[in-house]
Write a structure and sequence with these properties.
It is built from 9 helices and 13 strands. It has 2 domains: 127 residues, ATPase, nucleotide binding domain (Nucleotidyltransferase, domain 5), CATH 3.30.420.40; 170 residues, ATPase, nucleotide binding domain (Nucleotidyltransferase, domain 5), CATH 3.30.420.40. α3 packs across α9, α6 packs across α7 and α7 crosses α8. The protein starts with 10 loop residues before the first strand and ends in a 13-residue tail after the last helix.
């Protein structure tokens, strides 16, 4: 990581990772180090309740900090107007046109407040302070309940005309035979290759494996981690599901390479904890499907910041004045 400036007080910011079930606020310094986290569950998704819980953890983070706090950055799911901090649409909360940024500013008038998409914040965090350091063309994909992420092209984080760039999870890879996605389309990359997608592959294949150990687990409790672990021990049902899952993941990754030709694709989220068991399987499949750029020139690696990427990226955005991948230009005297 880059070193802090000598002879000056260490600056920092509060980075907030706002999720559908919990919120986490962290004190993050200029070099991406976390100096304390505060979390609270979310049960009531009404804007007033979420703002109250968010304010509680942010206040705790500010009170704990010994840094000069430059601002508050919030990463939230949904399509967001970064200028106003209004959440135009968030299926995770069932919100439309909620002025979250304005409400937080009213509670913390001393601080600059930045609000951005959580996946784009995570991409910024991983690019500036994680495995993306030193690259110009970088993609982060988080493989969890869904697929989030973002794209950095020539050192610039892609945001799009209406802040919708980076929704890689919603390009269709199996529109005729795939699973129904939460967005309503069939066969989205997210529906096929998220953690939820792995569970769906296992369920689809279950009739062919009546003696599978996976069928001893109640359907509502079957998770992607259990399937992956069973595959690693050689369970045939789990291996079949894992093979189908990795094939779909490889299709999507090859498409990403065709779309933006990154130097590095970093995989984060819970499913990426499979490590080499995943990477060793998908890399050859991606190579087979890579045609219009030289094979072997895109590195596929695990992300390094884990669940902290969103908070680190949100804090970085607050310190930089927005979702800027590049360092701000140095003022000329």
């Amino acid at each position: 990581m880059q070193q802090a400036r000598k002879g000056s007080a260490m600056r920092g910011a509060i980075g907030v990772d706002l999720g559908g079930s919990h919120v986490m606020a962290a004190v993050v310094d200029e070099v991406g180090e976390i100096h304390g986290t505060f979390e609270q569950d979310i049960e009531d998704h009404t804007p007033a309740s979420v703002v109250e819980i968010l304010a509680t953890v942010v206040r705790s983070a500010i009170e704990s900090s010994k840094h000069e706090i430059a601002g508050i950055g919030i990463g939230s799911p949904g399509n967001i107007d970064p200028g106003t901090g209004t959440i135009r649409y968030s299926p995770n909360f069932g919100w439309e046109n909620v002025p979250l940024g304005q409400r937080v500013r009213e509670l913390f008038p001393k601080y600059t407040v930045f609000l951005g998409n959580d996946a784009r914040c995570a991409t910024l965090g991983e690019y500036v302070h994680g495995v993306g350091q030193g690259t110009k063309d970088f993609v982060l994909l988080t493989l969890g309940t869904g697929i989030g992420g973002g794209i950095v092209s020539n050192g610039i984080l892609a945001l799009g005309h209406q802040m919708g760039a980076g929704e890689i999870g919603h390009h269709q890879i199996r529109p005729d035979s795939g699973f129904v996605c939460g967005c309503g389309k069939v066969g989205c990359f997210e529906a096929q290759a998220s953690g939820t997608g792995l569970i769906r592959h296992a369920m689809r294949l279950a009739p062919s494996f009546p003696r599978s150990v996976l069928l001893d687990v109640p359907r509502e409790k079957l998770g992607s981690k259990a399937i992956r672990k069973a595959a690693q021990t050689g369970d045939q049902h789990a291996l079949a599901a894992w093979t189908a899952y990795c094939d779909d993941l490889a299709i999507g990754l090859a498409n990403v390479i065709a779309f933006v030709n990154p130097e590095v694709i970093a995989l984060g989220g819970g499913v990426s904890s499979a490590g080499d068991f995943m990477l060793d399987r998908i890399k050859p499949l991606v190579e087979l499907r890579t045609t219009m750029v030289p094979r072997g020139t895109t590195r596929i690696v695990r992300a390094t910041l884990g669940n902290d990427a969103g908070a680190v990226g949100a804090a970085t955005a607050a310190m930089r004045g927005g979702l800027l991948a590049r360092l701000p230009p140095t003022a000329v005297a």
